[in-house]
Amino acid sequence: MLLSILTPSRNYGSFLPDALQSVAGQEDDAVEHIVVDGASTDDTVEILRAWSHRVRFVSAPDQGQSDALNKAAAMADGEWLGWLNVDEFYLPDAFRTVRTALADTPGADVLYGDCCFVDQTGRLLRLLPQHRFVPRILRWYGPFMSTCATFIRRDALPERGWDPALRRVMDWDLFLELQRRGARFAHVRAPLAAFRIHDAQVTAVRIHSWAGEGVHVRARHDLAASPRLAKTLHVLARVDHGLRKLADGAYRRQAAVQRALRGADLRWFASSDAHENAERLVHMASRPTYR
């Protein structure tokens, strides 16, 4: 089974090698990595050319992240698509874990795991474990699944793909569309990837700048409600989200990892010490069951 890893890119050359190395280092021959770059003006293209033996890429103006993901998906040959932004990286043995989980959940259309937050240099801030899929939490709390730890069956991806008009909540929109179409979501209780927190990322922009996108997505997916009702449903879904994580032991795993590894370098492809840190995190945080 071929995995296609889709990476949208623009002017993040400083982070790009980590993403590339985290895919190449998985020791999995049935993987293709596709990078669609939006005509970067930094050293991105030079880096991609140096990696051309491992990566398929194009660099041309585009309409943003969603447009780049659609172009990458159109280039992909794999049965399953992974979404790795250029400032993120996979953890050790992520693809092996994904393949095992897919073999154990043959009816899944979307597989998502846990992730961890790291700082700009790749040092652990905190583990972010999740719980099994609950439609009302997705609908009213939001996209609790981390995109860097998510894999989508190619045949399940809507023809429209990602909406280029959305710059922040394209993940929520896509997951809602998949759920509306009856896609089966499965959760693997293991950390698969690292999500960087840094000032230049889209999600660092104040939420009010993107408020119109939320209104658009709610209307598209029949989530229109009075402000008071919507707020109440959001609070209830947030509480449900927290209780399910508590019941699943997510907070215990998060606290244990925090005590042992906070501040540890997780760029496992860069040094033996970081490799040991990342492997320890995966071992401590994994509970290999799939729901």
Please tell me about this protein's structure.
The protein has helices at residues 16-24, 44-50, 65-75, 94-104, 135-140, 170-180, 211-220, 227-247, 250-261, 272-285, and strands spanning 3-9, 31-37, 55-59, 80-83, 89-90, 110-118, 124-128, 150-153, 185-196, 287-290. Strands 1, 2, 3, 4, 5, 6, 7, 8, 9 and 10 form a ten-stranded mixed β-sheet that branches. It has one domain (87-290): Spore Coat Polysaccharide Biosynthesis Protein SpsA, Chain A. The mean pLDDT is 92. The longest helix is centred in the C-terminal third of the chain and has 21 residues, at 227-247. The chain is α/β, with parallel strands linked by helices. α9 (250-261) packs antiparallel against α10.
Model regions low in confidence, pLDDT < 50 over at least 5 residues:
none
Amino- and carboxy-terminal Cα gap: 21 Å
Strand content: 15-25%
CATH architecture, please? Alpha-Beta Complex
What is the average per-residue confidence, as pLDDT, rounded to a whole number? 92
The third-level CATH topology is: Spore Coat Polysaccharide Biosynthesis Protein SpsA, Chain A
Regarding CATH, which class?
Alpha Beta
Structure class: alpha/beta
* Major β-sheet annotation: 10 strands, mixed
Helix content: 25-40%
Layout of secondary structure:
Elements: E1 3-9, H1 16-24, E2 31-37, H2 44-50, E3 55-59, H3 65-75, E4 80-83, E5 89-90, H4 94-104, E6 110-118, E7 124-128, H5 135-140, E8 150-153, H6 170-180, E9 185-196, H7 211-220, H8 227-247, H9 250-261, H10 272-285, E10 287-290
Parallel strand pairs: 1-2, 1-4, 2-3, 6-9
Antiparallel strand pairs: 4-8, 5-9, 6-7, 6-8, 9-10
